[in-house]
C-alpha cells in the first residue's frame, strides 16, 4: 500500500497516553469490530475485542509491514526530548511548536493553517510532516479561553 499520513484532533484532559488509548480503541472498533477490511488478518477462531489484541500481529510479516495506516500504528508515548522511533508518539517541544505553528501555545486554527501551508507546498512548511514513518507527533491545542481541550496527533505509516 505504501506510506500514508493521518491526523486526529481529539478531546484532551491533560493526559497524552489516555487520549491516545481512547482514539486507538475507537479506530480499532471502526476497522476491526464494525468494519470488514481487516477480516483476513484475524487467525481462524480468534476474535479481536480491543486494540491490545493486535499486539501479537505486529510480529506477523503481512500485518507488521502493512499496519493499519491509522493511529493504531503508534502506541508508545515518549518524551519531547526523546528520539522518534517506530510506533512512538512524541509531544512537540515549545521550540518545535513555535517553528511549526508560530507559537508555543497553538490553537486548532494554528494547526489547520500549518496543514494548509503544507498542503499548498509553501516553502518551510515541510517540517509539519518530518517525522519518520511508523511514528507520530502530538500537541495540545488551546481553545478561545486558553484551555487545552483538544490534542492534535499526526503521523505516518507504511513503507
Layout of helices and strands:
Blueprint: E1 4-11, H1 16-33, H2 61-66, E2 76-77, E3 88-91, H3 94-101, H4 108-119, E4 135-142, E5 148-157
Parallel strand pairs: 2-3, 3-4
Antiparallel strand pairs: 1-5, 4-5
What does this entry look like structurally?
With 159 residues, the protein is α/β, with parallel strands linked by helices. Helix content is 28%, strand content 20%. The protein is built from four helices and five strands, in the order E-H-H-E-E-H-H-E-E. The protein has helices spanning 16-33, 61-66, 94-101, 108-119; strands at 4-11, 76-77, 88-91, 135-142, 148-157. It has a five-stranded mixed β-sheet with strand order 1-5-4-3-2, covered by helices on one side. A hairpin with a 5-residue loop joins strand 4 and strand 5. The mean pLDDT is 88.
End-to-end Cα distance, whole Å, is 8 Å
Largest sheet: 5 strands, mixed
Task: Name the poorly predicted regions.
Answer: none
The proportion of residues forming helix, as a percent range, comes to 25-40%
> Which shape, going by the Cα principal axes?
globular
Which oligomerization state do the chains in this entry correspond to? single chain
Number of helices: 4
Q: Give a count of the beta strands, DSSP E runs of length 2 or more.
A: 5
Order of strands, main sheet, comes to 1-5-4-3-2
Question: Strand share of the residues?
Answer: 15-25%
Instruction: Evaluate the radius of gyration.
Output: 16 Å
Helix and strand sequence: EHHEEHHEE
Amino acid at each position: 500500500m505504501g506510506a500514508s499520513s493521518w491526523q486526529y484532533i481529539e478531546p484532551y484532559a491533560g493526559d497524552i497516553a489516555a487520549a491516545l488509548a481512547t482514539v486507538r480503541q475507537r479506530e480499532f472498533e471502526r476497522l476491526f469490530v464494525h468494519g470488514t477490511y481487516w477480516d483476513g488478518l484475524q487467525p481462524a477462531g480468534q476474535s479481536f475485542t480491543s486494540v491490545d489484541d493486535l499486539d501479537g500481529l505486529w510480529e506477523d510479516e503481512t500485518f507488521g509491514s502493512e499496519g493499519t495506516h491509522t493511529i493504531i500504528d503508534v502506541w508508545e508515548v515518549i518524551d519531547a526530548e526523546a528520539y522518534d522511533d517506530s510506533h512512538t508518539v512524541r509531544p512537540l517541544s515549545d521550540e518545535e511548536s513555535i517553528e511549526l505553528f508560530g507559537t508555543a501555545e497553538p490553537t486548532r486554527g494554528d494547526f489547520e493553517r500549518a496543514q494548509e501551508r503544507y498542503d499548498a507546498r509553501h516553502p518551510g512548511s515541510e517540517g509539519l510532516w518530518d517525522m519518520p514513518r511508523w511514528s507520530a507527533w502530538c500537541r495540545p491545542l488551546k481553545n478561545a479561553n486558553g484551555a487545552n481541550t483538544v490534542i492534535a496527533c499526526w503521523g505516518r505509516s507504511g513503507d
